[in-house]
Structure formats: C-alpha cells, structure tokens
Amino acid sequence: MTASLNNLLNEIQSVVKRPRYEILVKPHVNYLYHYIKSLAEEHKGRELLEDEMTVVVERYYVDSDYIDDYSHFHVRSFFEYGRLCVRLHFFANDIQERQFLSWLADPANPGFSAALKDYLGFVVIRPLPKTFVGRTCLLPPKRASLEVPFGQTYTLSLFGMTAKTGDTIAFQEQDNVVSICATNALWFTFHAQGLNAGNPLFPSPAMITKKASELTEVAERIFPAVGLTPNMLAATIKSQNLEPQISNLNINNDTRLTADLLKRESYAYMRDGVAAPILSISLGADIDKLEVFIFLSIQPEPSRGWL
Question: To the nearest 10°, the Cα dihedral for 173, 174, 178, 179?
C-alpha cells in the first residue's frame, strides 16, 4: 500500500476507532509521515512521490509491551479496549501486493533481500483512543553531524521473513495511565543499554511501574500511575543490574548555567557509551526553585570505563 498521509490516517483510524479530526489534533501523525518521507528521500538521494514509498500493514499484531500493559490495567477498564495492535512497516520503494505475496511463498527470493535495503523501520499502533503510538523503531537521519551513541539493532519477523532495523532506539508514547513520563524514560534507557537483546523478561512499561512500586513499598494503588519518585527510579535501575548516579544540576536557579551543565554532564557519559541519561525536572513550592536532576544508569562493567 502506498505510504501516503491519507492511508496512514485510515490505518490509525481503523485501530483507534476515533473520528479523523481527533487523530489529526495530535502532532504525532503529521510528524511521523513527514519524518518517514524525508528519511526515504534521504535514503534514495532524491525527492520521492507518495506512490514511490510503501507501507506494509501487519494486522492482528500482538505487541509484547502493550499486551502486558493491557493485562495490568486496560482489560479491567469499563471501556472495552482492544488487545491487538497493527504494525506498520515502511519501505523507501514501490512494492506491489502481488510481488510481496510472492516473497511470502519464497522468502529466499532475491527480490526480498533487495527490498530490505530500503527498509526504514516500523511503527506499532495501539488500540487506545489518544495515546496510540506504540513501539516505534525507525532509522535515524543520515547526517554526518548526527551520532546515535546507544543505537541498537532490532531483528523482527515480517510475516515469517526476517527483517532488521539498526542504529536506532525504540520509542513509544506515554499513555498517562500505565507508562507515565518517568516510566517511559526508564523503558527508553533500558533499550538504549541493550537490555532487550535476547531477553524474554525485558520489562514492559507496566512491569517497570509495578516493580518500582514494589521495591519502594508504596502504600498507594499502582494503576492508574501517577509517576515515579527519584527513589523509585534509582531502585528500578538497580533491579536491572545497573548502577544509578544522581547529579543535582541546579545552580542558584540560573537556568543558563543549569542548561550548560546538563549538556556537559550528559555528553561526558554518553560519549563513550558509559551511561544513558534520564532527565528529571521538579518544581518546589516556590516556582522559582527549579531542581534539575540527571539520573545515569551505568553498566557495572570495568571494561566500559569510568569517568
């Protein structure tokens, strides 16, 4: 199917069951479309028409992260949320349906291997009315000045055929119920550290929130989540055999100095792949009292080096 904005909207609408104008209110859809189009043009080295890009739709897809979130919260809701997702695969070339079906019959077909060179990645659409952007793995832009210090390679099954997307880090939208801001930040960080590779017990956002609450003995209900405290973040990082480091970067409420120090400290740890940073910003009773913390999940291996 042509990877046009209209087709993308149709597929999202078929999953989330909401009017198109509600979908378009979110900036995510337009951003994703234009990012994928620019990525395809960069990949091909020229401007492309919509019919020169293809999206392969994988319906009835069971996403490991969403199904866990679903079982922990959504299945118990009065509103009947779906449990199956749709996964959209993007290619920077024109693939006809008959051609793709022939590859399914013969995965060793050299045409499929050639098409994989133009594979840009995938986006999972969750059956949630507002926060529907699930696990997303897309290639980064090919810029000489751009580095992806924690880029991972994700191997996936595309209707039984093996595909890969490399030098990227999985992303998903926070859903404000199970995976609020800090939970998603930990999920990104664990992906960046490569903990997902060959790990069937890699924690979903729901499991991260639940584990954080158990480790710190929170007396309140876990779901719907209200966020994680600094102690929860640190305890969850330790549970993954990583070492947390917390740095208070606030300098006399001087936002300029704080921002500069934030960049310096983040770069120092990311440069050699020592640690993936998580930013935490909190406001005190006085709105002028801004506190900026940086949490670092450090691989406890001497071979990685220390600062």
Answer: 100
Identify the domain containing residue 294 by its residue range.
181-304
The residue with greater pLDDT, 123 or 223, is: 123
Instruction: Let me know: does 147 contact 168? Beta carbons within 8 Å.
Output: no
What integer is the mean pLDDT of 254-280? 69
Burial of 303 (0-12, 13-18, 19+ CB in 10 A): exposed
d(CA 113, CA 13): 32
Q: Which of 140, 136, 154 is nearest to 42 (CA)?
A: 140
Among 168, 191, 221, the domain boundary falls at 168
CA dihedral sign of residues 187, 192, 195, 200: positive
Residues 41 and 158 in one domain: yes
Mean pLDDT value across residues 264-274: 73
Among the ranges given (161-170, 225-234, 240-249, 252-261), the one the predictor scored with the smallest mean pLDDT: 252-261
ω into 224 cis (within 30 of 0): yes
pTM across the whole model: 0.85
Do residues 82 and 74 make contact, with C-beta atoms less than 8 angstroms apart?
A: no
Same domain, 212 and 290: yes
Residue 184 near residue 199, CB atoms below 8 Å: no
Lowest mean pLDDT across 134-148, 216-230, 283-297: 283-297
In angstroms, how far is CA 148 from the centroid of its own chain?
A: 14
Q: Are residues 242 and 164 in the same domain?
A: no
Whether residue 174 lies inside any domain: the answer is no
Decide the pairing of beta strands 243-248 and 290-298: antiparallel
The arithmetic mean of pLDDT across residues 114-139, rounded, is 93
Per-residue pLDDT tens over the stretch 196-242: 766 666 888 888 888 888 777 766 776 677 778 778 888 888 888 87
| Residue 138: partners with Cβ closer than 8 Å, 6 or more residues away | 35, 36, 39, 90, 120, 121, 122, 123, 165, 168
